[in-house]
Amino acid sequence: GEVFLGYADGLYRSPITSTAAVWEKEFPLNGQITGIYPGQSGPFARSLRGGLFQNISKGLWVSVFSNLDNQMFRTIFETADKTLFVGCDYSIFKSVDQGKTWKHVYEHGWMIKIVESGGVLICTNQQGILRSSDGGEHWDLVVSEGGVGIEVEVIEGGFAAITYNTTSETRRVRISTDG
Fold first, then answer.
1. DSSP per-residue codes, 10-58
2. What is the pTM of this model?
3. Average pLDDT, the chain
4. Assuming Cys at both sites, which of 42, 79, 129, 140 could form a disulfide with 83, CB separation 3.0 to 4.6 Å?
């Protein structure tokens, strides 16, 4: 029922029921917001200064995952079974206890986006597209071709991904319907 907007001076919220956008600034999230991610218990926000925050009630944001303070966060994803994944500069971390403890599950490049469908996780990586079919315990590079995974989405019947080939400087849209 709400839309969030990350901006250079902070985070703003607006109800989608309004005929005209009414933006309220969220505190204490001052400074540049570099990412907003959905979560089952409330949305997450990433700030340029570092750190992840979660909205636990309207206007109340708390710092989360301080046990990963030395990492540069790129993204966060929560699966249907509430498993959390955090993509950092060179790692993917997994938590099955809402961030109290973390397991290092991948360490070969950053992850920007992760999606889930039918028990399969797909994510973008600086080497291409990664896939996990065991709850994120192990990751396989399924598309590499000298490129970077730019975007991935769940589509009807499968996944769609955009990759960038750094040698030919071309982009390609790929679709998978077999998981």
1. EEEEEETT-SS---EEEEEEES-EEEEE--TTS-EEEETTS-EEEEEET
2. 0.83
3. 87
4. 79
